[in-house]
Amino acid sequence: MSIKAIDTIVQEQQQQSIDTLFTLLKQESISTQNKGMRECAALMQDLMREIGIDPVLHETKGHPILYGELKSENASAPTILLYGHYDVQPPDPLDHWHSPPFEPTIRDGRIYARGAGDNKGQIVAQLLGVKAYLEVFKSLPVNLKFVIEGEEEMGSVHLPDFVQEHKQMLKADLVYTADGPSHNSGLPLVLLGVRGMLALEIEVEGAAFDNHSGNTGNIVPNPAWELMELLQTMRDQDGRVLIDGFYDHIRPSTPEEDKLLEELPFNAKEVGEKIGFPSLELDGVGYHRKLTMEPTFNIFGLKSGYLDEGVKTITPSKASVKIDTRLVVDQNPKDIFEKIKRHVKAHHPTAKVRFLGSMDPSRTPVDTEIVQKAISGIRDAYNQEPLIQPSLGGSLPDYVWTNILEAPSMLMPYANFDQRNHSPNENIAVENFLNGISCTAHVIHELGK
Fold it and tell me: What is the pLDDT of residues 63-77, one digit of tens each?
């Protein structure tokens, strides 16, 4: 049989594939709130069994990790590990959704539901790609291993320990992940790493309780002002982080990586419209370098005083900020956290700094032989040259594969650029979902040659 038969199978089974995805999307699985996690893991196990995998549910101190294998008849076949996650973000704010988040709906060629793009739509496409390949060829040219976890949206808390404990069982020649958004141009995109992440909270306290802003005005300190003054010491007006040592240990980009950035297409107007910021003013290299090769220092939440409608004239007793930093190779989240703590202590000794979570950055060299073979499979699937980006702007637990398992790792996002993951009206285009099924089969075929 020809590999082209895969495309026919995918089109013929389009409705069946969508129905399979809908079964998973209807089941909420919010890891941070422990909603529906066991039920969703059971549904994922059912799907794995349909493909011929004998899934094993590994308990952790949090949500379970699913593992399974499919072996090739070829004793010298390479081993590919497919990774994904079955947990999703909370759907809030609910009133911003055009249809209920756990009632998947197709509108204008897109499937709308929480998890449609991140990551149920993409891991289901991988599984269905394996199924389609077996239907056409009856056997696999590679060994496949599957790791599907339930804690990615809360930082993959227990995945590192799982990988460390089961290194021999998980041993692989390549880790292949379908996650994240594709390129804004719509062209297929290969990602060879991720930025890391550190999340923390800083809290400043004033009086023991909120005070009348007139009766005690100018008397009790206002922690909201103190917090803003503290934040001004951490970042300048050009966005450069002022924390001592923050930029230490950043690995310079290689000439090959610089060339990849230069080759990525970019349209500032189009990207600006898709991200809701039409006044975006960057050139392509600047945009992609900021997104992949530079760290961030981002405020994602501020809280103090009275925030409801109307007026409540108080001097608040507390103020807090939540910050996430996206880190690049070879920055260490724990090292950065300690540097931030020292900076805060020097500028506001009584402020409290709390660690909320972290993930290490990771990157695989573009000239890795097995990566190049997988790229050939992607090229065949889409009949065009894929774009290659050294890193994803966001964070995934890629380091558990490159640092702990010591395997090369690559990401091939199947979801559309404007999938709105983590936001209301998350979606995946039906075409992207079906193409992901086909792409998985093509990659398996090429790696097995």
Answer: 999 999 999 999 899
Nearest to 223, CA basis, from 311, 309, 313, 314 = 314
- For the entire predicted model, the pTM comes to 0.85
Length of the chain: 449
| Distance from C-alpha of 249 to C-alpha of 264, rounded to nearest angstrom | 26
Round to whole Å and give the CA distance between 420 and 279. 20
Structure confidence by residue, pLDDT tens digits, 150-171: 999 988 999 999 999 999 999 9
**For residues 70 and 52, is the Cβ–Cβ distance under 8 A?**
yes
Q: Which has the closest alpha carbon to 313: 206, 219, 212?
A: 212
Asked if 363 contacts 329 with a C-beta cutoff of 8 angstroms, the reply is yes
Write down all domains in the chain, each with its CATH number in brackets: 5-194+362-447 (3.40.630.10), 196-253+293-359 (3.30.70.360)
Q: What does pLDDT average to over the chain?
A: 96
Largest interatomic CA distance in the chain: 84
Dist CA 220 CA 315 (whole Å): 8
**DSSP label at 305?**
S
Cα 36 to Cα 76, 87, 103, 253: the distances in Å are: 41, 9, 15, 42
Select from 354, 344, 355, 340 the least CA-distant residue to 226: 344
